[in-house]
Amino acid sequence: MDTAKICKAEVVSKFHDVEESWDDEFKRLKHFQACDSDIIVSTFPKCGTTWLKALTFSSLYRNQFAWDKNPLLTFGPHQLVRFLEYDLYLYNPFPDLQNVCVYQPRLLSTHLPYASLPTSIKDSNSKIVFICRNPLDMFISLWSFLYKLGDESLEPLSLDEAFDKFYHGIYAYGPFFDHVLGYWKASQENPNKILFLKYEDLKEDINSHLKNLAMFLGVPFTDDEEKQGVVEEIEKICSFENLKEVEVNKKGVHISGIPHTGFCRKGKVGDWSNYLTPFMVERLEKLIQEKMDSSGLTF
Ligand code: A3P
User: Fold this and answer.
1) Boundaries of each Sulfotransferase domain copy (predicted)?
2) How far apart are the C-alpha atoms of 95 and 116, rounded to whole Å?
3) What distance separates the 2 farthest-apart alpha carbons in the chain?
């Protein structure tokens, strides 16, 4: 079996079974030393990671390449912004980060819950950009993604089975609500370190959120850039419609063995209504209410 296949099986089985041990990866990740200037894109899977990677990459490095040579035209967002855990440190305690992070400051990503982040990320002045999404859409996106992966060694999960697991918080990277609330609370306590975004807000008004993102990253758009339409250019290149049509995203395969097409499906808000039964919706809405409680976070 080649490395990509092993990776893919590992990713898929982690989605299926949260009991699988993460110990080895955590041990390896301890070797990661965050720098004060690092930017970490952090998400729960299927909440808009691909989009956020593209937006962060393009905003942060916009002056480091000619516009018509934006690497997003040639590489997928997941090739440009690599995952710490199931990509860089999956088998290697000392990946060559200098080689991986071509541009400065370093831009990396993770799906780990806030509580499980390497301490150097929390203790340094590095910044975290987090995105979450309405759990109903996130769940449908994840379920569709697993189906698409179609790993031969595992039975595909039916919607009912997947729903049951999700409802009971059984998913890789921990229960969705704990994951999101961990970052939410940390961002409330330290808004200069963690920018908390919602997929739906970006869909509604990408322009102002992109400006806000650039400001947070310490690279605000200048008046000249705004006049020249740089913000709109970034919006366009990172849009679902554009990313989906880039050759590598149509045909390429991620280092984990997952086809890039798996990362761009519909890109819509409210797609859950095409799949979930009224009973499922009622249960999930009750759960959302219960879990969000007095946190101040709403979906
Ligand atoms: P759907 O499955 O609902 O279409 P992640 O990147 O965290 O894996 O999340 C994937 C979800 O984000 C998918 O949602 C995918 O279609 C959507 N997506 C990917 N690229 C996007 C983009 N540029 N703009 C908006 N949504 C995007």
Assistant:
1) 36-295
2) 20
3) 54
Q: Residue 2 — pLDDT band, cuts 50, 70, 90?
A: very low
**Whole-angstrom distance, CA of residue 228 vs CA of residue 117:** 39
- Torsional class of 111: left (φ above 0), alpha (ψ -120 to 50), beta (otherwise): alpha
Based on the residue annotation, tell me whether 254 is a catalytic residue of this protein. Answer: no
Q: In sequence order, what are the residues at sequence separation of 6 or more whose Cβ sits closer than 8 angstroms to the Cβ of residue 49?
A: 41, 43, 77, 78, 109, 111, 131, 263
8 A C-beta contact, residue 287 and residue 167: yes
d(CA 186, CA 291): 17
What is the CA(118)–ligand 1 centre distance, in A? 26
> What is the Å distance from ligand 1's center to 94 Cα?
31
Q: Which two tokens stand for residue 229?
A: 């339409």
d(CA 128, CA 216): 10
Stated as kind and residue range, the H or E segment containing 26 is helix 23-29
**Domains of the chain, earliest start first:** 3-134+175-265 (3.40.50.300)
238 within ligand 1 shell (Cβ under 6 A): yes
Distance from C-alpha of 102 to C-alpha of 170, rounded to nearest angstrom = 36
For ligand 1, whether the C-beta of 259 sits within 6 Å is: no
Q: pTM of the predicted model, to two decimals? A: 0.92
Complex ipTM over 0.95: yes
pLDDT 10s digits, 34-83: 999 999 999 999 999 999 999 999 999 999 999 889 999 999 999 999 99
Query: CB-based burial of residue 247 (10 Å sphere; 0-12 exposed, 13-18 middle, 19+ buried)?
Result: exposed
Identify which of 258, 180, 188 has the alpha carbon closest to the alpha carbon of residue 14: 258
